[in-house]
Design a protein that fits this description.
The chain is α+β, with helices and mostly antiparallel strands and 227 residues long. It is built from seven helices and seven strands, in the order βαββαββααβαβαα. The strands form two sheets. Strands 5-4-6-7 form a four-stranded mixed beta sheet. Strands 1-3-2 form a three-stranded antiparallel beta sheet, covered by helices on one side. Helix 4 (126-138) runs parallel beside helix 5 (156-165).
């Protein structure tokens, strides 16, 4: 594979050897590990103002170098999520130590920390806050093509929010087991797998017909909202 730098119309800072040397070193380490990479690569990749395009060739080193550059960029975005984590849980104490970033085309769209305590809102998790902010900034409820970076593995609510938003790629740092002694979602996961009549939250169904009538009306709308 050969990597071609494409300059945008406006001025772009060139990559100097001092900048690329860590990436080359990282790529060499990957090569020495004899990792085999499948043909998994997007068609374009953006690193700040530096845009890369590539075409397939016999050069495995080029492929590994590009993957190394992408990995470094992912780490930079994750560090912003961890920064939001520290701000929320330690500095501002606005909520638990959780942070998240929503990015598109390699650029941050929105970043946020947990604000459950500050906002008196149990749904104000970092991922939910970041997704809400990203939707407002982009003017859409559909975040397809966006990538989310979260300081910790998503809880069921945040995973569902990302799913409904169209996000299909999530990077996370800490696993549930890393902070299970402080925050745990195991009870929720287990509870949702139980039969409805055995769950912690009592579920009682009433006025089903009236609600279904509204669904019937909605089905007839030619411009009913679909998402």
């Amino acid at each position: 594979m050969t990597v071609i730098a494409v300059r945008p119309a406006r001025r772009m800072t060139s990559l100097r050897m001092g900048t690329t040397r860590p990436l080359v070193s990282f790529a060499l380490k990957l090569l020495r590990s004899k990792l085999v990479f499948d043909d998994w690569l997007p068609k374009t990749c953006r690193f700040g103002s530096f845009r890369c395009r590539w075409r397939w060739s016999s050069s495995r080193f080029s492929r590994v170098l590009l993957l190394a550059m992408a990995a470094k960029h992912d780490e930079a975005l994750m560090r912003e999520a961890i920064h939001q984590m520290r701000e929320a849980g330690i500095v501002n104490k606005s909520g638990g130590p959780f942070g998240a970033v929503v990015a598109k085309n390699g650029e941050i769209v929105a970043s946020a920390g947990n604000s459950v305590i500050k906002d008196l809102d149990p749904s104000a998790h970092a991922e939910v806050n970041a997704i809400r902010a990203a939707c407002k900034k982009l003017g859409t409820w559909d975040l397809s093509g966006c990538v989310m970076y979260t300081s910790c593995e998503c809880c069921p609510m945040c995973y569902a929010t990302a799913y409904w938003a169209g996000i299909r790629n999530v990077f996370y740092a800490a696993s549930w087991s890393d902070y299970n002694d402080l925050f745990s979602d195991e009870a929720i996961n287990h509870d949702m797998q139980r039969p409805k009549d055995q769950r912690e939250i009592k579920l009682t169904q009433i006025l089903k017909c009236e609600a279904c009538n509204v669904w019937d009306e909605f089905r007839e709308l030619p411009d009913g909202a679909r998402y």
